[in-house]
């Protein structure tokens, strides 16, 4: 088994109740969507610090993290999916490598209504993230009422995972 990469992503809720996605368009591939976020770097002071850095790089944004929705295993990566309110952003002012390197293809900001119906209209990647978000939306349409998975559950300090077991 290889090294597991730690990644952070956010369901970023806007003032009008939409969530922000980034549509990826790469030559020779079907378009797909991702939640803002990325890899945890050695200089990051924890998962939430990494998420704040990624939001700044990808959206020139600032967010208030509300909770951890869950953790999903996707291939060699473990993805920590947070729920947050986006306080400000300026997609044109982003500074991450995706804003500077044309070889990565296009990155297009794509706000969507936070509904199960809207989620079915996109190919959200990795699929385990889409499954987690769809599951949360079957429980409630107000994700802010869901329990924060950062808190220990039943004597365990690890949030439940969705995806293949290691």
TrEMBL record:
Residues 3-130 form the Nudix hydrolase domain. Gene3D superfamilies: Nucleoside Triphosphate Pyrophosphohydrolase. It holds the Pfam family NUDIX. It comes from the Bacteria. InterPro entries: NUDIX_hydrolase-like_dom_sf, NUDIX_hydrolase_dom. Residues 147-166 are annotated as: Disordered. Residues 147-157 have a biased composition (Basic and acidic residues). Belongs to the Nudix hydrolase family. This is NUDIX domain-containing protein. It comes from Sphaerisporangium dianthi. The lineage of its organism: Bacteria, Bacillati, Actinomycetota, Actinomycetes, Streptosporangiales.
């Amino acid at each position: 088994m290889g090294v597991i990469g730690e990644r952070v992503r956010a369901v970023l809720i806007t003032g009008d109740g939409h969530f922000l996605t980034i549509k990826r368009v790469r030559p020779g591939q079907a378009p797909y969507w991702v939640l803002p976020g990325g890899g945890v770097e050695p200089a990051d002071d924890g998962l939430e610090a990494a998420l704040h850095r990624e939001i700044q790089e990808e959206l020139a944004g600032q967010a208030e993290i509300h909770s951890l929705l869950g953790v999903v295993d996707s291939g060699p990566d473990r993805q920590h999916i947070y729920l947050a309110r986006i306080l400000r952003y300026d997609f044109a002012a982003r500074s991450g490598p995706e804003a500077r390197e044309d070889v990565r293809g296009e990155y297009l900001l794509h706000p969507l209504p936070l509904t199960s119906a809207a989620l079915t209209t996109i190919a959200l990647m990795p699929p385990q993230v889409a499954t987690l978000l769809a599951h949360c939306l079957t429980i409630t349409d107000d994700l802010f009422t869901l329990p924060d998975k950062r808190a220990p559950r039943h004597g365990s300090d690890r949030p439940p995972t969705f995806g293949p077991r290691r």
